[in-house]
Structures are given as structure tokens and as C-alpha cells.
What we know:
Layout: E1 6-14, E2 20-24, E3 27-31, E4 39-48, E5 51-59, H1 87-104, E6 127-134, E7 140-145, E8 152-154, H2 164-179, E9 193-201, E10 204-211, H3 218-225, E11 231-237, E12 249-254, E13 259-263, E14 266-270, H4 280-294, E15 296-304, H5 310-318, E16 319-326, H6 329-341, E17 348-352, H7 355-365, E18 370-375, H8 384-392, E19 397-402, H9 405-416, E20 419-422, E21 425-428, E22 442-449, E23 459-465
Parallel strand pairs: 3-5, 10-11, 15-16, 15-18, 16-17, 18-19
Antiparallel strand pairs: 1-2, 1-4, 2-3, 4-5, 6-7, 6-9, 7-8, 9-10, 11-12, 13-14, 19-23, 20-21, 22-23
Amino acid sequence: xxxxxxxxxxxxxxxxxxxxxxxxxxxxxxxxxxxxxxxxxxxxxxxxxxxxxxxxxxxxxxxxxxxxxxxxxxxxxxxxxxxxxxxxxxxxxxxxxxxxxxxxxxxxxxxxxxxxxxxxxxxxxxxxxxxxxxxxxxxxxxxxxxxxxxxxxxxxxxxxxxxxxxxxxxxxxxxxxxxxxxxxxxxxxxxxxxxxxxxxxxxxxxxxxxxxxxxxxxxxxxxxxxxxxxxxxxxxxxxxxxxxxxxxxxxxxxxxxxxxxxxxxxxxxxxxxxxxxxxxxxxxxxxxxxxxxxxxxxxxxxxxxxxxxxxxxxxxxxxxxxxxxxxxxxxxxxxxxxxxxxxxxxxxxxxxxxxxxxxxxxxxxxxxxxxxxxxxxxxxxxxxxxxxxxxxxxxxxxxxxxxxxxxxxxxxxxxxxxxxxxxxxxxxxxxxxxxxxxxxxxxxxxxxxxxxxxxxxxxxxxxxxx
Length: 466
């Protein structure tokens, strides 16, 4: 297969990015925005050995699962990958993605439940984070990055965001024009405003403008007052020459800087940098599934990578007590505040540090009780030392929550014994039996949750038992 030549082929399956997989002679081509069964023409943009990455040029026969995308920016902006697929097909793809990863990477041939969906397929995101930059002619633009680049695709609204996103973008654009402020030029490291970030909490907005200096946002706050009944406004100053959104300098410009929300009977305070799942409806379903798997008044729950403590608090109410371990000090401070806010001081205990450093200490404190472990690691998955500690813990149940099917499959393989370490590498374990191995865990259930409709991403909850 040669670069820049056009080819024709049939889409045999979808890859992990939601792209079509096409065989052509002895090559495999990955082409976005295709669906299984379609015969398509594509241009080979990049060829590496027997693998190619292409651009769709024509669909010769439409799949019955193909639908018209609702967003005019689809295929240009990097936010969505699946708007061209019927929602039922999206749910099937995510189930199959999880099942394939477990089998191919983890060596685990297990049944995966149907993907759980929420009520909203669009307008579900409670958080907006937009880069503000310049185009090739130096004009200020606000939008999303194009796929695999830092070129901003200008947008006025986003179909995945709530309706307030369009009014907020318009307000910032108007304010910047009147104030003579420019977007941030990543190449020249110049400009005034780098990002616009907002989070909705029970109908109120926590809004942050990320700038390169301490600019005056009073007129922006006044403009927001005309569009939004309840909001608070932060200025974050980020002078660093990197791609991290927030800097360390914060200034409150309007309001108290946070709002109080409630989820499953737990009150919480959310500010500009508080982590919450972006889909309120599916988050509730996912957390209920976790709680239902472990709730027991005789069980102590240990919440690894516990973040701001929302799930830890729910576990504390459902179990005898709960311990949370989180490395970010600000998140632990939020968890301590949440504990006091909900009267859980005698049942919820938060520890600050790396999970691999604190896990033995917390396990020692909870010794003598039935134990359930809940683990929601970052995309890179669990550290090997954490996996070994979990295996040695004697916990009756382990619940993994993951946003990355590939690292989930690897971690599950190590927890179930289908994978093992050899000479620093993870390899398939020839001694593994699907009936289970002594000293390891067995999979009770695997359930994908569609936290991110229209995209390739999926959250998965796996329940394990001894």
C-alpha cells in the first residue's frame, strides 16, 4: 500500500478508536467514520509497513446503522468519533470493544453485559473545557483541537454540551473583542487567554478563565450576569510553557468560587478544579452499581484513587466504614470537607499519598473485618505493587472502574492469573484455567457504561470475587 494513493475495500470491523478496519492484500488500513459492512474508497495518508491510516473519500453502500451527524463540526473537531453511527450500534461497539480487549490483552474469555446507557445521547456533558488560541492569520479562535493536532477548530456550540455552552462562548468572544484581548499562540508563547473552563453543578455554573496574566474580568462577570442566573467566576493565571490547562495562581472574581450539589444522598462542594464524571445521569447509574456490589454493614470498603471522596462517602454510608487513598492534596482536602459536610467523621477516613505507598497502612487499619476494595485508577491503570497488595489483601470483593479497556484487561489478567510477570514483562500464563486459580480472583460481572455517547470512550465496572 502506497501513501497518497486511493484504495477501495470493505469494512470488516471497528478498531479501538471507532475507525473502520479494512484488509487490502496483506495490509490493514484504519479509516475513520466507516461502519461494518460498508464498501468504501479511502486515501492512504500514512503507511507504516503493513499498517495504513486513511481518509474516507466515498461510501459506496450505506450501512443500515449509518445516521446523519447532528453537529456541523463532526469529522473536523476531535471531540466525537461515532456521530455517524446509530446509538444502538454505538452501544454494541463499546460492549465488543471491552470483550475484545479482555480476550486479546488479558487472556480472559468472559461474557460482557450490555452497555448501560443514560437518558441523554446529546447535551449530557456537565463540563466544558475549550482552548482559546489563534488561527493561521493571527485571529482569535475558541473551539476544540482537531484530531491528533493542536490546531483549533472554531465552534459556537457543541452538541455534547448543555445549552448554556453556546451563550458562554459568545459572551467570552464578545468580552475579548471589546477588551482587546487575544487568544494564546502556542508557537510564539504570546497572547492573553488560554482556556475557558466551566462546570455545571445542580443548575449553577463554576466558570474559569485561564489567562497568561492577572487581567480584569469585571466586565466579563457583568456580561455573564445577563445570561446566567447562578454562577461563580474564577481567574486562573498560567504562565507555564506547557499544555496543562490550569496554573497554580487562582483569583476569585465573582461569587464564592464553588457550589454545593447532592448525589445519592451525599452533599458535596464542587469548585473549578473538582473532579466529577462529566455525565451526571450515567455517573449515578455507575455509582449505584458499585455500591450494590459491595454494600454490607459488616464490610470495610477501601477506595483506591479516591479523588474528591464522593464515592468514598457513598461507600461509608453503605458499609461499616470506608478508607480513601488519593495522591492529590487538594482532592483529599475536598474529601475531608465532604466527610464533615455529611456527618461521616466516624466512618470515612481519607489518606493523602500514592496508593502504592499507603495501601499497606490502610489495609493494616482495616484488618480483622470483611473487606471490599474499590479501585478507579487513571488511564494508565494500576501499579504492579498495588495489584500485588490487592491479591494479598484477602478482600472478599474487588470492584474495578476503568475508562481504558486496554489497561483494564491487563490489570484484570494479573488479578485473575491469566497473565503473569516474567523478566519484567507481562505474558500469558499457561497454567491459567477459566475455572479460576487459587490465590487469584474470579470475574463475577463485566458491565460497560456509556459515560461518553458519540465518542469512542467507555467506562467499565468489573466485579471480582475470591
